[in-house]
Amino acid sequence: MKLKNFYIEKYPSDKRGIKINPESTFIGLLNALDAGRDVHECIGIKDSIIRKRLFTELSEHLKRDYDFVYNLWLSEGRGVDWDKGCYSCNDELNFSILNK
Predict the structure, then answer these.
(1) Chain-centre distance of CA 7, in angstroms?
(2) For residues 32 and 38, what is the distance between their CA atoms, to the nearest angstrom?
(3) What does the alpha-carbon distance between residue 100 and residue 97 come to, in Å, rounded to a whole number?
């Protein structure tokens, strides 16, 4: 799912959503988090409210609490135990939603 499409649909009154990178996806955001890259470059705008809303949506798809995604961001991809805390290998439906 494209970040911009999700955001504009869920938050139509937030005009900052038009600045989100139209090519970025939730899987791309997850990859940026895992690799320790700047998520704001992935998102296309440096805005804490937008980042928090996107992290919240990502955490719901991963079936983890917000703190998991937030701590992944803070750790810059280091020291996260993926075996204990991300998605199940059998959870293809939710993971495929991230990649649309």
Answers:
(1) 11
(2) 7
(3) 6
**pLDDT tens by residue, 23-48:** 999 999 988 888 888 999 999 999 99
pLDDT in tens, 39-90: 999 999 999 999 999 999 999 998 888 998 998 898 876 655 555 444 333 3
Domain boundaries, the chain: 3-81
- pTM equals 0.79
For residue 2, report the phi and psi dihedrals to the nearest 5 degrees: -70, 135
| Gap between the Cα atoms of 20 and 52, Å rounded | 13
Q: Which residue has the tokens 């993971």?
A: 95
| Coil, strand or helix at 2 | strand
Question: Please, what is the Cα angle at 31 between 26 and 36, to 5 degrees?
Answer: 125
User: What span, in angstroms and rounded, lies between the C-alpha atoms of 51 and 65?
Assistant: 15
